[in-house]
Design goal:
heterodimer, A: 472 residues, alpha+beta, Heat Shock Protein 90, 5-stranded mixed sheet, two-stranded antiparallel ribbon, 12% strand, B: alpha/beta, Glutaredoxin, 6 helices, 5 strands
Chain lengths: 472, 218
């Protein structure tokens, strides 16, 4: 399992974190040791049974024999001594009592093994080895529990069966201290080792806490920088897209200007002659229909050429401080007639005391006229054309906002990403050139602004943002 | 939280119960190991009916043992210890009990081999415990020391408990008698299996009532 990552917050001190690490280390260590003691105690139990069966399988009374008490003791008493510490090690490993149960159990196991081996001196080393292993807990109280069992065992036997301990029947009451003293002798070194070990662990915990905190701070910094880098990359990507679009529009503009210039002169001649011929036609002349058609189509071509020239000039106009509301008022006066003819009601909501923007009056008006005309076209059965200006700000940044909305049929989501492309149109052939919204887009970008669209059936809203002069 | 407290209480109570039962079990074991067998006093003079050779003027040490008694291994070890400290101070005989009906060489097990390996020790087979009866011995591991004139000097065990070797009063007494002529103890408890076809315990340890009643045994 992957260890939980540490995240530092300002409220946490190094010492507090070091204490947490120390506690965690102690718990992990206790679990590790307890599990190994569980294995050891199970093995000791088996070993005791094997030993009893091998060395003292039977006790005799003359020619009769029966199973020796050592065999029963190894199986049942040994099993009881081992089973509870094993249970605690496996299922209550975090309880404070578990190391003590294991310590006491291990000492009882030592006592049993010593009995089973006839009190051999060699088996007494099991006590000393067990104490050394118990010292792994790094807890002086655990050593104390184990030592208490040894001392009690010797004191109890010294009082009631002194011969079995000392070989003589009469001993002084303090004699058990001689045996327990050797255990205490080892304890002194073990306790000293535990104290030194704990110091080392605490020092290591403190170092780890310091490292973790430094790492956490670095990680936070890296995350901040990564986020900033991601934002910068996004901005660069957006700028590259805008640059590409601008280059595309510029190329289209140059092409349009060239084409328009080349077409304009021959078209003027065609239109001039067509109009001259049309004036001289008599009523009912067979040429009336074709000549009038030539005049009409030539006029359409002239309008198209005019649009192309306007499009191409979008990159050539000067910008000065100007009032957005005034430009809007001028534009709306030009479309009033058209809106009335199409039963479109104009709702104006122009923000008072609107800051000036840097712009080109003709181009701004071109934006309003193009968007307004599109809106009127989108409402063939009438509707509401909304024009709204306001000052908006967010996160310390302020901009002038223009919203032009209509209550028309809306723009399908599938084509919303294409509507600003040159020559893209949904209008019938001959009705639109597909340059209106491209022109709007270019003019907005030329004014360091942005344009976005929200559309659904019954409501379409173009939101244009112009920067305040101070932000330019 | 209450569940945790309850769980902790159960654990503590279970620990106390476990400790009590384990302690009781060890107590039973200790009681068995510290319970001496029958050790009646042998004849104060060397029995004439005994077939064991007795050299006048030289002390004789007898160890009477059951060849399959696990506890007697410690007595043999202690005899070896005595022999190493009292060379040529006594004639030493180890008599291994054997029921007459038992197969040939039944008695010649590991204890026989160990006893035979001790320098200066003579090993005999005591069929049906005839010699043991001459010396009034009923427990394996019973040692008896007679002086050169056939007077009883010591009678008892040379282990501290059943099957427990190590320093003990009987062993030290024999060494002291053979080297200095006097000892602190002349009789000690004998720990071992019965040579007779009856339980050799002074009280039956399997009878809990008697068992509890015999503490302390001093």
């Amino acid at each position: 399992m992957e260890p939980e990552r540490f995240h530092w917050d300002d409220t946490q001190s190094v010492e507090k974190r070091a204490a947490q690490i120390f506690k965690q280390h102690a718990e992990e260590l206790n679990l590790w040791i307890s599990q190994r003691f569980a294995i050891l105690m199970a093995l000791q139990w088996i070993m005791g049974i094997v030993f009893a069966v091998y060395v003292s399988p039977q006790t005799w009374a003359g020619s009769r024999s029966q199973i020796h008490i050592h065999v029963y003791a190894a199986i049942f008493l040994g099993g009881m001594i081992a089973s509870f510490p094993i249970f605690c090690a496996l299922y209550r490993s975090k309880h404070w009592l578990t190391p003590h149960v294991i310590a006491i159990g291990q000492m009882l196991a030592s006592a049993l093994l010593i009995h089973l081996t006839g009190g051999r001196i060699e088996t007494h080393f099991h006590v000393f080895g067990s104490l050394a292993f118990l010292a792994y807990y790094k807890d002086w109280k655990v050593i104390l529990s184990a030592t208490a069992v040894v001392a009690f065992d010797h004191a109890f036997r010294g009082i009631y069966w002194p011969e079995s301990v000392y070989g003589i029947t009469v001993v002084q009451p303090w004699r058990f201290l001689e045996h327990a003293g050797w255990v205490v002798f080892e304890d002194i070194f073990l306790l000293n080792s535990i104290a030194e070990g704990l110091k080392d662990v605490r020092r290591a915990a403190l170092r780890q806490a310091e490292l973790e905190i430094v790492n956490s701070l670095i990680e936070t910094k890296v995350q901040e920088r990564t986020t900033a880098l991601a934002l910068a990359n996004k901005k660069i990507s957006e700028n590259q897209k805008q640059l590409t679009q601008s280059e595309k529009m510029s190329a289209v503009g140059q092409l349009a200007a060239g084409v328009a210039h080349e077409i304009n002169n021959p078209l003027g001649i065609i239109l001039g002659f067509a109009q001259g011929l049309a004036q001289r036609l008599k009523a009912g002349d067979v040429l009336e229909v074709p000549i009038k058609s030539i005049e009409r189509e030539a006029l359409r071509c002239k309008n198209l050429v005019q649009d192309l020239l306007t499009f191409s000039r979008a990159y050539q106009q000067n910008q000065v401080p100007m009032d957005l509301n005034l430009a809007i008022e001028g534009s709306l006066s030009l479309i009033n007639a058209s809106s009335k003819m199409n039963s479109v009601e104009i709702h104006k909501d122009l923000g008072p005391s609107l800051p000036q923007i840097i712009g080109n009056l003709n181009q701004i008006q071109q934006i309003v006229i193009n968007l307004a005309n599109n809106a009127i076209d989108a409402m063939p059965k009438g509707g509401v054309l909304g024009v709204q200006t306001s000052v908006q700000s967010n996160d310390g940044y302020t901009w002038i906002q223009l919203i032009i909305s209509d209550t028309g049929k809306g723009i399908d989501k599938e084509i919303q990403s294409k509507i600003f492309d040159p020559f893209f149109t949904t209008k019938p052939v001959g009705k639109g050139t597909g340059l209106g919204l491209s022109l709007v887009y270019d003019i907005v970008k030329k004014h360091s602004g942005s344009i976005d669209l929200e559309s659904e059936p019954g409501l379409t809203r173009f939101r244009i943002k112009f920067p305040k002069i101070e932000n330019l | 939280m209450n569940t945790q407290k309850c769980s902790a209480k159960i654990l503590i109570l279970t620990t106390a119960l476990w400790l009590g039962l384990s302690g009781f079990g060890l107590w039973v074991l200790l009681k068995y190991q510290a319970a001496p067998g029958v050790s009646d006093l042998p004849p104060i003079a060397w029995p004439k009916e005994s077939a064991i050779p007795k050299i006048h003027g030289l002390a004789t040490l007898l160890l009477i043992a059951h060849p399959e008694c696990p506890c007697t291994a410690a007595s043999i070890e202690e005899l070896a210890w005595i022999m190493s400290r009292t060379p040529n101070k006594a004639r030493v005989h180890v008599l291994f009990f054997k029921p007459a009906a038992f197969p040939k060489d039944w008695e010649k097990g590991s204890l026989w081999s160990k006893a035979e390996a001790i320098p200066g020790v003579n090993v005999y087979c005591d069929v049906d415990g005839v010699e043991a009866k001459h010396f009034n011995v009923g427990t394996s591991g019973h040692a008896i020391l007679y002086d050169g004139q056939g007077h009883l000097l010591f009678s008892g065990g040379i282990t501290r408990a059943r099957g427990h070797s190590g320093s003990n009063a009987g062993r030290d007494a024999i060494v002291a008698l053979l080297t200095r002529g006097h000892a602190e103890y002349r009789r000690t408890n004998v720990f071992g299996c019965s040579l007779l076809n009856i339980s050799n315990q002074r009280k039956n340890i399997w009878n809990l009532k008697d068992f509890i009643g015999m503490i302390p045994n001093r």
